[in-house]
Amino acid sequence: MSISNLEDLFEHTLKDIYFAENHIHKHLPDMIEKASSTKLKTALKDHRKETEEQIERLKSVFKILGKKAEGEECPAIEGIVEEAGELLSEIDDKSTRDAAIVSCAQAVEHYEITRYGTLITWATELDLDKEIKNLLRDTLSEEDSADEKLTALAEERLNEKAKG
Prior knowledge:
The chain has a single domain, classed as Ferritin. The chain is built from 5 helices and no strands. The longest helix is centred in the C-terminal third of the chain and has 33 residues, at 130-162. The mean pLDDT is 94. With 164 residues, the chain is mainly alpha-helical.
């Protein structure tokens, strides 16, 4: 995709996060399976359901813009997911692996938070439909909440148990 203005950049980034959300949705079951903490498994399962809703919101944004909902490969999220898989394959201790899962999941959340924050700012600058900004804000709020929940899990002894 050729990018020559902010509108093009907005569309590129929208396709990027659409790809990222679908990629994350596809790979979350791997993390869920590797988690040993019941609370962590539940948090990841809940976030996978949220991710489905986030994908639907993105489809709505594309529709409002009169564009086809499609992703553009996102090497950043692919790298984060690949690194997580490699890291988790090296850890045998369940508590340590749970701590690593939280860390990897937060890396994903932080990536998403930056993308949604940027899209909201650009949507405002481009004077896009208010509904687009609302849909993006709803997802940003969920991503912030997911990050806070992961931090709470880590502080709730997952890191302490991993110390050995």
